[in-house]
Amino acid sequence: xxxxxxxxxxxxxxxxxxxxxxxxxxxxxxxxxxxxxxxxxxxxxxxxxxxxxxxxxxxxxxxxxxxxxxxxxxxxxxxxxxxxxxxxxxxxxxxxxxxxxxxxxxxxxxxxxxxxxxxxxxxxxxxxxxxxxxxxxxxxxxxxxxxxxxxxxxxxxxxxxxxxxxxxxxxxxxxxxxxxxxxxxxxxxxxxxxxxxxxxxxxxxxxxxxxxxxxxxxxxxxxxxxxxxxxxxxxxxxxxxxxxxxxxxxxxxxxxxxxxxxxxxxxxxxxxxxxxxxxxxxxxxxxxxxxxxxxxxxxxxxxxxxxxxxxxxxxxxxxxxxxxxxxxxxxxxxxxxxxxxxxxxxxxxxxxxxxxxxxxxxxxxxxxxxxxxxxxxxxxxx
Length: 382
Ligand code: ACO
Description:
This protein has helices at about 45, 50-60, 65-80, 85-90, 100-115, 125-145, 160-170, 175-185, 195-205, 210-220, 230-240, 245-255, 275-285, 290-310, 320-330, 335-355; strands spanning about 25-30, 35-40, 40. By secondary structure, it is an all-alpha fold. The chain folds into 2 domains: about 40-225 and about 335-355, Orthogonal Bundle (Citrate Synthase, domain 1); about 230-330, CATH 1.10.230.10. A 3-stranded antiparallel sheet has the order 1-2-3. It is globular, with a radius of gyration of 22 Å. The site of acetyl coenzyme *A has 20 residues, from α15.
């Protein structure tokens, strides 16, 4: 701290841990119990039982739809799967080695610039549907363009998971691929006031527009401490390569001070319930060899983390088995975080709507640790 530093007497919370910055009815993470609830429903009751569209209806509108409401809702989503030509034109010149998440951030941002009359300073449900429905279309278009292929428009009769794979590969996906993808999308749709959702709410709290809030959230998701981990889990498992190499690889990584991707969580001090469900899905969806390697890595990592950091309660998080599930449905590693964003776009926009409905500018304080009485010298005297 510099000499004559000025400090404040306000309570300090490094990383805002434990600070309540918003009220929400959308989802809650019970960190000690390892439980996640969306609007009153434990995620175990939704994953594999409801569709992703039913869960989107639940988060946006507040209740699960009946059949007629779901049909109407699917129609609205279907009408919004087509990309404006301007978005495809913006994606075309991107280099083929651009990160798909950067392409997504660009494409989503273009939506706001192309249709300012639609994405006004008053976020509403139609805007939320319109943006979220286009996430898979933007990613699929970029995925095809980078392979030298033309984008494919969505098909109204296909659901979100099916359309995502259809628009990416140009053929209707098999159930063994779209079903696990749909469960994955349900599990990741919302998660309390995580870093990207907080970003979206901070932007919404300035009474900015929904597209700006969602574009900012994509940026926050990109970091490996948040949504950027699953591709790194895949890299880790690929590098480990075989069961014999699990122990030396992890020992060496931890001895070198590295963090093991897919483990630890700010809120969960028990197993992440999404990890438990994804483990079961990975067992069915991925190859026996890859699943066995993942499990051996998980077992040894958990034992070592418990031995080395007994006070930190480090368990498997959602990202670890996401890698196995998303690989098994045919997505390359650089599409993992963007696919997380496809799911979370629903939660982000639900939070923007909730923030807008009862807004107060989010403006925390900082602890000032700088000097206050330095003497100014003109430039010729420095
Ligand atoms: N591997 C090794 N050590 C770890 C790990 C890990 N994965 N996670 C935490 N630790 C250690 C830290 O080194 C630290 O040890 P120290 O006190 O001896 O320095 C201690 O545990 C506490 O770490 P913090 O960074 O204070 O914990 P925080 O709550 O901020 O971190 C986080 C949570 C960022 C997720 C962390 O566990 C991590 O980096 N995990 C690996 C990356 C990852 O899996 N990210 C995805 C998270 S899930 C999601 O966002 C969707």
